[in-house]
Structures are given as C-alpha cells and as structure tokens.
C-alpha cells in the first residue's frame, strides 16, 4: 500500500492536519515544520492524489501567471521575479502566454479550474473590466499592467503617465527642444501606449514645449525592429528631433541601432530614453537611460496579495485593492553621455 | 442543471464522442467541426469537469514546458516558439521555471500527474538519465538541450561540439591567432559548457593553433555580467587575445560592453563570437556574430514528437528517438566589421 498522510505525520512527528496544510500549500506553517514534513514526504515517497484532492476542494499548491509574451524581456524578467516570490509560499508557478489574444485570455479567465490552480496573476492586454469579472470559477486573481483599473480584482501597477512625464522632463532638462516619441498605438485597447503618450504630452506642456503630432511615431508592436524603423522615419525628416522618448526599452534599443547606423551621435545629437529597465539596456552601447518600474516589487506585491486572498473567507472578502508601485529614472549614457 | 456533453452535441449537430474529443484536446478533429463545437460550448457555457475527467484518464489539452530560466532570452524565445507550435495542436502550454534546481526538476518529473497535463517538454540542467526514467506518471516527455543523450525519452538538440568548432574555425579563418573562450564551467553537470569547450579545443587543434588553458575563462553563469567580468580579466593580461568565443550571446554582449568601455575596437582588435542567435545580438552595436541553432525548428520538432507519442499505444511505444537539428553561423559586425 502506498504511504498515506498518517505515515508522513508519524515520521515527521506532527499532526495529520499539519501534513495536510503543507501538502495543500497553505502559508501559515512554520518553515522548520514545513521542512520536516517535506523530508518525511520525500523519504516515504508520499504522493498526494491531486485529482481526488481537487474534487474535495483542496489546494494544488500551483498558481498560474498569464502574460502577453515571454519574448518581451520585461515580461520574462517579471516572470522570474514572480517565480522567486512564489517560492516563499512554496508555490509552483505555471506560466501561460496569451499573446494578448482575446480568445486565449477569455479561456484563461473562464476556465481557471481546468488546470487545478489555486490562483492567477494576470497581465491582460485584450480583456477589460467586464470580461474579467470573477466567473463561477471563483479563483482568486491579481491583475498587473495598465489594461484594467478599478476592475473586479486586486491590481498592482505603476503610474505610467507620471513615469512617462518624468522621462520627458529629464530630456527637456538636458536642453532638448524637439523631443520625439516612439510607441503610439491606434487601437483603443493599447492603454500602455495611451498613458505614456499622455504623460509625454503633459510634460511637454509643463516644460513650455509645443506638441508636434508629426514627432509622434506609431508602431505595430513594442519590439526592436519597430523602434529601428520608427527612428529611421524620424531621421528622414527635414528637421529631425534632438531627443526621443521610446515607450519601452526594446524600441529604444532599436532606435539607437538606427542612429549609430546613420552615424548620428548618441546622446550628443539625439538623446534616447527608454522604459522598463530591462537588463539589455545596462550592457548596451551606449547604456540606456530608462524608467525603472521596480519589477521585483511588483512581483512580490502580486504574490503577497494572492496569498492574502487565499487565506480569506470568500464570504467576507475585502473589496478589490489598487496598489501603486513607485518608479525611478535610471540615467545612463544614452542621455548623459560617457 | 448545467449543460452537459449531450446538450453541446445537439447544438453543434455532432456526436457526443466528437464533443468529447474536442474537449479532451485530441488532435484529429477537423478544424470546422472543432470550431462548431467550440461555438456551442461558448454559447451554452458548458464547462467540462477537469478533475473528474482526469480521474477517468482523459486528456486536458494542456502540456507543460519546463525550462531552467526565462530571464535567459534563449529560453524565452524557445518558449515562444513552443507556444506557437503547440497552437497547431490546440494545446495550451504551461511553463514551469526550474532554475535548474535538482529538487524542482525531480518534483516535476515525479509529479507530472498533479497538474493534469498530457505531456512534458523538458530542458533539464540538473537531472540526468537515471533520474529521468519514466516514473509511475507515465506522461510522455520530450527532452531538449545537452544535459541528456540517449536517455529514457525522445530528445531534440543540435550538435554543440560541432557548432562551437564552426565558431572557432570562423575566427581562425579571419587570421586570429589568440582565440580566448568565455564560458567554461567546472561542475560535471554543465554539459553545455563542456561540449562547447570540447568543440573549441578540437577546432584550435585542427587549425594548428596551440591550446592555452589560461585563455579559457570560467563563469558562474551565462549572463551579461559574467561575460563583462571575464573579458576584463582577459584584457588585464600582458598578452590579451585577438578574438573571443563566448559560449552564449549574453556572455558575448557583456564582453563587448567591456571591450568598448576599455576603448578596444571590435572586431579590429578583438573579434567576438556568441552562441544562440537571440534577438539582442541583431540590434546590438556592433551586431553580434553567433551560432544560430534554429530554435523555431527545435520547438516544432519537440511538439510534433510529443503529439506522436500522445497518439501512440503505450504498450507498443517506439524506442526513444534522438533528433539532431542543423545549426548555422550568423556572421555580423562583431567579427566582420561594418
């Protein structure tokens, strides 16, 4: 007969209830106790029957993280931080890449139970408030990113508009007067782009600089190739800009590549500012000035909020919370020079 | 009463068996039929009971992809390609980041059933052959990477030793005579590093160049910061190298950053070669010459192998297969100049 909860409890010298708490991934077990139970589980080769446990309404110890795209380094870094933060709760994180597609995001939200997960951390691109209302699944969810504000679940984000404004104020403070923007997007769901554009416009106005719509370049996606092409279009103008604020670091790295290809000095002739503070920009040539959203903190807060929700009686659940994380400017060679 | 299979079948005008095939994620359902069934499922709000289905031994339509680290762009790109390839089978891919830790890899292999997945694509760092033998879970698995050869499951990889040799032969062909290597690792499990080092040594010998162990720099990990530090150590020597082969692109991008910081011209004074062909190196300054492993093809093959195994009678399963994918050299500015 395979070993049971009772055997594990006997070996670890704890109650069956404690073993069950560990197995189900509950948070409030002392680390020493958890380690002892884990040892006994390993030694005996105890294997909880997840399917049966799920039918009984237990916990799987698994959470899901749904992101638009892992090939965007920002999301890959965010995923890494969330996996780290989840370790403190002994959770396994399964990552689901949605590509921002409505259908996949909808399946995710409506089909939560299918994957036997305890909770979901979700950075939506396509779905907005109504679509996200807790379905019958009732699985706790924490939202990330700019798509949804005051939605049906806890939400962690930075103030994008203010952060974009800070980036533009830095460029204006260096004496730049023709500050372009790369990263506008037409579709109404592109909230990130809209907020960063709003911050750009507000900061220009504050600094007494005119808003010139022809200096704002729209992109299909936030990748290096889009930034490179957008920068080429700006340089082809009769009156090219003396600075450019890119709505993410990949766009900025692509823009810098075009500038160097054309023999334009960065930052002497054109200063470049990114957004995200991905690792690439710390080692690029020139290194990239950018907005740092404190991604590690966002990840920790999201995981801790989810843990709180899991410990909560659903009948007495607190109202959804909005947490704003501080951003900082990381100023490097692409605006300050060497 | 919630809608059942019967209701979905009636609405879609298909048999109950067909609805069940769609719900269970089987591959051989005509796209038109699948769409009709999906429509009926959506319209009726039918929700299959995954836990019950799992106990009956059905399929979840979910596969897992286990990778060491998503913050390594190579793995993030690989994950993206696997998600794409899995779409053709209408599979959802859940990604599990192992950080290459023995314990997490072991849990993954022994606890496959816990997450109700149909199959696993796994790039191990810690586990080797014996640990990977199909456990009681019996879930089909495809292995990626260099850690395991002729193991208990299908395996897709490139010929690392040959690829590393090609990189070094390219540098020697440019007339470089003091070719350093960055990326050696001491631990016996670091098969990737060992194979690339073996390729480096073999190519040096073929090209009639002496092997100088002091030109081989060991690193803790394959990140930009390791490459930057290793390059600094090489430049501090009385007789610095005139070329460097880095065991991945991140090491190479870090090395280039150090070279430019020290005012060393790339490639005129030191040529730099990477490995992986991640997107970063196509936009860096200088752009990066590298070995391209055709990651998209690796992903497609892994997914197709897994699909074959899922369609197979376990009692008549074919022996594990080894598939080798071709690599190519992508030659750019870091060795050829502008």
Describe this protein's structure.
2 copies of one chain form a homodimer. Chain A has 338 residues and is an alpha/beta fold. The first copy, chain A, has 3 domains: 5-55, lambda repressor-like DNA-binding domains (434 Repressor (Amino-terminal Domain), Orthogonal Bundle); 62-157 and 294-325, Rossmann fold (3-Layer(aba) Sandwich); 160-292 and 329-336, Response regulator (Rossmann fold). In chain A, 42% of the residues lie in helices and 16% in strands. The first copy, chain A, contains 14 helices and 12 strands. Chain A has helices at 5-12, 16-23, 31-44, 50-55, 73-87, 102-110, 129-132, 160-173, 191-206, 224-235, 249-261, 280-283, 295-310, 333-336, and strands spanning 62-67, 92-97, 119-122, 141-144, 154-158, 179-184, 216-218, 243-246, 271-275, 289-292, 322-325, 328-330. A 6-stranded parallel β-sheet of chain A has the order 2-1-3-4-5-11, covered by helices on one side. In chain A, strands 7-6-8-9-10-12 form a 6-stranded mixed β-sheet, sandwiched between helices. In chain A, strand 3 (119-122), helix 7 and strand 4 form a beta-alpha-beta unit. In chain A, helix 1 packs across helix 2, helix 8 (160-173) packs across helix 9 (191-206) and helix 10 (224-235) crosses helix 11. The longest helix of chain A has 16 residues, at 191-206. Residues 50-56 of chain A have low confidence and may be disordered.
